[in-house]
Specification:
The chain is of the alpha/beta class. It is 43% helix and 16% strand. The protein is built from twelve helices and twelve strands. The protein has helices at residues 3-10, 14-22, 30-43, 49-56, 75-90, 104-116, 131-137, 161-174, 190-205, 226-237, 251-263, 297-313, and strands at residues 61-66, 94-99, 121-125, 143-146, 155-159, 180-184, 219-221, 245-248, 273-278, 291-294, 321-324, 327-329. The chain has a six-stranded parallel beta sheet with strand order 2-1-3-4-5-11, with helices on both faces. β1 (61-66), α5 and β2 form a beta-alpha-beta unit. α1 (3-10) crosses α3, α5 packs across α12 (297-313) and α8 (161-174) runs parallel beside α9. The chain is elongated and about 75 Å long.
Length: 343
């Protein structure tokens, strides 16, 4: 199987195939690029990676490190990494994935290991790095972080978590709820802290909570997982003056909270309304469907990967910061009409 075979099937010249594989030096139209990629896939063509790397002085590999890359705790990570890989493949890059499991030492080990493998760039998904390690990456590889806290020489993408928490809580207030509990992860995690801040701001504006909501029995922290949400919601909903609604910091926790309500004999949304945060695909398939603050997960992943590839392929590109908006998606778990999945 040769490059000429790919060119014949794609209806292009071998040079165009080379430009697609090597991302240059000349531009290729989107239509021609797609024909080449389709031909490569159909034929199972594999270019000589060693020769390609020697010519370009790149490994054609990027590293993606997440605090839960398999999506086992939060569906956000699985959906995000899948979208990252798709964009990277279209641009001619392979992806190495690492799951730090919320362990700083493990995250540091993955960063060091990926740098030793000479990746061309890194995407860090809510993975903190030490000041020393950040300085080590500076000038060596471009880095895109998915978080609110990052060194100024990294590109940074994040969602407006505080506004999302505020939207979720305002929606529950508009449904007549006043005791709205917060099922959160550890508050030292920046997105969780900001989502809690939005929840607190909405309640205080409505005069629906004292200044110390944790002491008022409205906050329970748990692991950012289905199990963590289940256990935190059990504690909140077993209290004598239980909340009538819950806002959970991720969809996984919200789904766990819905199961906790069912195990306690409570109806969702009749006895307790629930809203999550992420916009994961799984939210549409719970019964009732889970209302959620939806992040543009696929768009964020595409933007992160394109930003990284742009920095890899063009020297002197300045780091960028982009904050995405989140959108309330209403379903049956908060008492809104349940949309049909099949139209």
């Amino acid at each position: 199987m040769t490059r000429n075979d790919v060119a014949r099937l794609a209806g292009t010249s071998p040079a165009v195939v080379s430009y697609v594989i090597n991302n240059g030096p000349r531009p290729v139209s989107a239509a021609a690029r797609q024909r080449v990629l389709d031909a490569i896939k159909q034929l199972g063509y594999r270019p000589n990676a060693v020769a390609r790397s020697l010519r370009s002085r790149r490994s054609w590999t990027i590293g993606v490190i997440a605090s839960d890359s398999a999506g086992g705790k939060s569906p956000f990570f699985g959906q995000f990494t899948r979208a990252c890989e798709e964009v990277a493949w279209q641009r001619g890059y392979s992806v190495l994935f690492g799951n730090s499991a919320e362990d700083p030492a493990r995250a540091e080990g993955y960063v060091r290991g990926f740098l030793e493998r000479q990746v061309d760039g890194l995407v860090l998904m809510r993975v903190p790095v030490s000041a020393d390690q950040a300085e080590e990456m500076r000038g060596r590889v471009p880095v895109v972080t998915i978080d609110h806290a990052a060194p100024p020489f990294f590109s940074r993408l994040a969602v407006d978590d505080e506004e999302g928490g505020y939207q979720a809580t305002r929606h529950l207030l508009e449904h007549g709820h006043r005791r709205i509990g917060f099922v959160g992860g550890p508050l030292d995690i920046t997105p969780v802290r900001l989502r809690a801040a939005g929840w607190r701001r909405a309640l205080q504006e409505a005069g629906a909570t004292p200044e110390l909501p944790k002491e008022a029995g409205l906050v329970e922290e748990g692991e950012l997982s289905l199990e963590g949400g289940y256990e935190a919601a059990l504690r909140l909903l077993s209290a004598p003056s239980r909340p009538t609604a819950l806002f959970a910091s991720i969809d996984g926790q919200a789904i766990g909270a819905m199961r906790a309500a069912a195990d306690l004999g409570l109806r969702v949304p009749g006895d307790v309304a629930v809203v999550g945060f992420d916009g994961a695909r799984e939210a549409a398939y719970t019964v009732p469907g889970l209302s959620t603050i939806s992040q543009p997960i696929d768009e964020m992943a595409r933007h992160a990967t394109e930003t990284l590839v742009g920095a890899i392929e063009s020297e002197g590109v300045e780091p960028v910061t982009k904050i995405f908006s989140a959108t309330l998606v209403t379903r049956g778990s908060c008492g809104c009409p349940e949309p049909r999945l099949h139209r």
